[in-house]
Amino acid sequence: MARREKPAGATPAQKPKKKRFARTRQLKQVYDMTVRVDPGAKWWLLLAFAGPVVLGLLIGLLVDHPIYFTILGLLVGVLAGMFVLGRRAERAAYVNLKGQKGAAGAALSSIRRGWTIEQEPVAAEARTQDMVFRATGRGGIVLVGDGPPTRVKKLLEAERRKVARIVPNVPVHLFTVGDGDTEGEVPLHKLASRVQRLKPQLTKQEVAAVQKRLRALGGIRPPVPKGIDPMRARPDRKAMRGR
Length: 243
Prior knowledge:
Number of strands: 6
Structural class: alpha/beta
Oligomer: single chain
Strand content: 5-15%
Number of helices: 8
Largest sheet: 6 strands, mixed
Shape: elongated
Order of helices and strands: HHHHEEEEHEEHHH
């Protein structure tokens, strides 16, 4: 009787190994990206890993349990190294985003909970490509300008007036992404934390009602060419007949 061949593919024992390799590759990619942007990160990682190991060894020698405390220090060192890598990688990602169009929206999107982030800009200037992004939460409404602070201020103020007409009693916070030298200007890597630190002023029910009203504003509408009234435009009947 012929033996049935097993279908090609990874065996159950190989699947965890592939996952481990995938995680290792991903970790290496994160490390390479971080060190490329922030060369000093490797020394902080080394300190975060080696510090607990050395400390554990010293404590172990004092209490006559060097192996136990060294292993404990090794585990703590791995956790500390992962934490430092995560923070440095996040900072490096913001450095890569800095100066790119839509960077403010990407920074807002890193907020995981408590705020509803509009994925598309709610206002934009076609000529300069300046944009305004919006977030809504218990702290109120946040409008973030993406562009040179002195230039995007006018676009921000216009959007603030528009929002105030729809929800007049809701606090509106204006931010612009920059170096943090002037009031309302926030560095890109601090934008998410600054928004999350806003004091709650609305209930969850009020936030839901505000979001419902803001949907009436819609998104960015494509501009109508000057000199054309779409309500009065008439088809060219001669062209339709092929003349």
